[in-house]
Design a protein that fits this description.
single chain, alpha/beta, Rossmann fold, eleven-stranded mixed sheet, 15 strands, binds threonylcarbamoyladenylate, binds magnesium ion
C-alpha cells in the first residue's frame, strides 16, 4: 500500500528520496495528480507503464522545476520561449526538439526526437528541485480510466502499485495541461487542456492550428477511448431517459431530469473553470451510482469548454478501439 503524506518540507524530501531510489510517487500538480518517476532512470520510467498498464508507444510529459532545467534537455525556439515566459509555471506543455546529449531515458519520449516539457505549479516544482532531475509523469490513473484529481482517487486506483502519494487536496485546474508544438510558422495545439486556446492566441497573436485528434499522428498513442467510466456516456443531452444519471451544466435542467438516478451539476452558474475542476470527480461519482448511462447536458466549446468536450467525447467513445483501428473501419 502507498504511504499517503500531507505536504510539508519533510514530505517533499521523502518524496525526492523515494524518486532518487527509482520508486514511483504520485504527486499533486495544478492540473491533475501525476504518477512520477525520475525521467533519467529507465527502470523507474518502465514502472510507470507497468503501474498504469499503458501501451509503451505513448510518450510521457517531462516536468521541470525551472527554465534552466528545460534548456538542459530541449532546444527552445523564440515562440515557445514566449509561451514559457508567459505561462510557466502552469498548465501548458510544449513539445520541443530533444537535445542529442540529453540524458532523458528514451522510454520517456518513446523513441521520438522531441520531448514534451512543462513546469507545474505548486509542490511538484519543489520536489523536482530537491531531486535535481526532471520527472516523467502521466496522469495518476490506470490507462484509459478517469484521471486522478485527488489523493483518495489515486489511492483507490493505484495505491497497491506505488510507494507514496502526496496529498495536496483537490487539483486546482482539474484537466490535464494543454499541449502545444511550434512547427515553423504554425503553432499547433496537440491536446486541448487546462489553458484555453484563446489565452495562448492572445499572446502569440496567431490562431492555433488544431490537430485532427482522430488522426493522432502528432500525439502518438492517444486513444480514442480514454477517461472512460464503466457506465456508457450520452452527450449533448436535452432529454434524460429513465435510469440515466445526469451530469448537468448551468442553471437550466434538461427535460426529464426528475427521472435521473442521480444529478451532479458541474457548475450551477455555468462557469467552465468550475466545470473543469469538477469534471473527473463528478464522472467518477456518477459512475459508482451503477446507472448504465451518464447523460451529459450540452457544454459550450469556448475557453476551457474545448478541453472539457474533448475529454467527454473520449469518455463516450467505443471502449475497445484505438484511433488507428477506428480510422481503418471508417
Ligand atoms: O497535466 C498534465 O499534462 C498531466 C500532469 C500530471 O502533468 N500529465 C499528463 O501526461 O497528462 P501524459 O503523459 O498523460 O500525457 C502525455 C501526452 C500524450 O497524449 C502524449 O501522446 C503527448 O503528451 N506527448 C508526449 N510526448 C510527446 C511528443 N514528444 N510529441 C507529441 N506528443 C507527445
Ligand atoms: Mg492521462
Amino acid at each position: 500500500m502507498a504511504t499517503v503524506l500531507g505536504i510539508d518540507e519533510r514530505a517533499i524530501l521523502a518524496a525526492a528520496e523515494m524518486l532518487a531510489r527509482g520508486e514511483l510517487v504520485a504527486i499533486p500538480t495544478e492540473t491533475v495528480y501525476g504518477l512520477a518517476a525520475d525521467a533519467t532512470n529507465g527502470n523507474a520510467v518502465a514502472g510507470i507503464f507497468e503501474a498504469k498498464g499503458r501501451p509503451h508507444f505513448n510518450p510521457l510529459i517531462c516536468h521541470v522545476s525551472d527554465i534552466a532545467m528545460a534548456e538542459r534537455y530541449a532546444k527552445i525556439d523564440p515562440v515557445s520561449r514566449l509561451l514559457i515566459d508567459t505561462f510557466w509555471p502552469g498548465p501548458l506543455t510544449l513539445v520541443l526538439p530533444l537535445k542529442p546529449d540529453a540524458d532523458i531515458h528514451p522510454l520517456v519520449a518513446a523513441g521520438l526526437d522531441t520531448i514534451a516539457l512543462r513546469m507545474p505549479r505548486g509542490v511538484a516544482g519543489k520536489i523536482i528541485a530537491a531531486l535535481g532531475r526532471p520527472l516523467a509523469a502521466p496522469s495518476a490513473n490506470t490507462s484509459g480510466k478517469i484521471s486522478g484529481t485527488s489523493a483518495i482517487a489515486v489511492d483507490q486506483d493505484l495505491g497497491a502499485k506505488i510507494a507514496m502519494i502526496l496529498d495536496a487536496g483537490p487539483s486546482e485546474v482539474g484537466l490535464e495541461s494543454t499541449i502545444v508544438k511550434v512547427d515553423g510558422d504554425t503553432i499547433l495545439m496537440l491536446r486541448p487542456g487546462g489553458l484555453a486556446a484563446e489565452e495562448i492566441e492572445a499572446v502569440t497573436r496567431q490562431t492555433l492550428g488544431r490537430v485532427d485528434q482522430r488522426a493522432a499522428i502528432q500525439a502518438p498513442g492517444m486513444m480514442a477511448s480514454h477517461y472512460a467510466p464503466s457506465a456508457g456516456m450520452r452527450l449533448n443531452v436535452h432529454e434524460v431517459r429513465a435510469g440515466e444519471a445526469l451530469l448537468a451544466f448551468g442553471p437550466e435542467r434538461a427535460v426529464g431530469h426528475a427521472n435521473a438516478v442521480a444529478i451532479l451539476n458541474l457548475s450551477e452558474i455555468g462557469s467552465l473553470h468550475e466545470a473543469a475542476t469538477n469534471l473527473f470527480d463528478f464522472m467518477k461519482r456518477l459512475d459508482i451510482t451503477g446507472s448504465s448511462t451518464i447523460a451529459v447536458e450540452p457544454i459550450p466549446f469556448n475557453g476551457l469548454g474545448e478541453a472539457i468536450n474533448d475529454r467527454l467525447i473520449r469518455a463516450a467513445a467505443p471502449r475497445s478501439l484505438s484511433v488507428a483501428e477506428m480510422e481503418q473501419i471508417k
